[in-house]
Amino acid sequence: xxxxxxxxxxxxxxxxxxxxxxxxxxxxxxxxxxxxxxxxxxxxxxxxxxxxxxxxxxxxxxxxxxxxxxxxxxxxxxxxxxxxxxxxxxxxxxxxxxxxxxxxxxxxxxxxxxxxxxxxxxxxxxxxxxxxxxxxxxxxxxxxxxxxxxxxxxxxxxxxxxxxxxxxxxxxxxxxxxxxxxxxxxxxxxxxxxxxxxxxxxxxxxxxxxxxxxxxxxxxxxxxxxxxxxxxxxxxxxxxxxxxxxxxxxxxxxxxxxxxxxxxxxxxxxxxxxxxxxxxxxxxxxxxxxxxxxxxxxxxxxxxxxxxxxxxxxxxxxxxxxxxxxxxxxxxxxxxxxxx
Length: 340
What we know:
Blueprint: H1 2-34, E1 40-45, H2 52-59, H3 62-67, E2 72-77, H4 81-89, E3 95-98, H5 100-109, E4 113-122, E5 124-129, E6 144-147, H6 153-164, E7 177-180, H7 186-191, E8 197-201, H8 204-211, E9 214-218, E10 230-237, H9 238-243, H10 245-264, H11 266-281, H12 287-294, E11 297-299, H13 305-317, H14 333-339
Parallel strand pairs: 1-2, 1-3, 6-7, 6-8
Antiparallel strand pairs: 3-10, 4-10, 4-11, 5-8, 5-9
């Protein structure tokens, strides 16, 4: 009987040992799965005021603090959304900040990326030459308006403003001519009298007013969707986010930290923005102009999906996309996890 009990005791202990070992290996496996294997994060953005959250996150070291010293951060700057989305579609960047409509246009062709956070609301304006004779949107009939590029967020915002005034751009059968021009160079077109107006983002709106004898026709509270307008968003490749969920959350935690810092310390944020732009472009922007520009936007992680839907509908009407169903375009689950 004693031998029998010893035998079964040994058997039970052996089984328990195997179970514990298996659990231990599962725990180790789970821990390994929680840690992403990414060694480099490639971030894209514009040297514009509407991308100030990304700029502050870089300048304050928020990304590096969250990701750790073992992860290399590589950055790339762009002048317009088309170039940004081309870089993302060719796997040159993993994520970054861009206007929602270029991201939307690219998504409708190849849904390999998503909006994972907001970055800035507002910050878009419609300026006109003081001697252009334009005193209302209706007066844009027969005039030429500069936009950053076709299909840009400002292009779509202009179309919304024109639609409300019963006008259309020439490409849609109307009589308002649009020309694309890099925002930083648009003031020169005013001086040369090649354009009558511009739909642009900050700080270039203020820059045109100050340096090209222009006036504000529609400010950030009136142009297109006003303060509710989602002007800049964080977009990421879905292959990157699905393969690196923890890294994605860390990036968004740094992004949210930057948004809070900007809202709590506007003067410091402006100084960081000015320093950053000078470092990467060699150009020294006017602090007075940038400070005025800052008043026209709202850094935020919020995304207004109702506005995005309207943008999609206008883009479809303009022929930029073939459908306006934005289902799956926005995924805020990583942001919620990062900021809970």
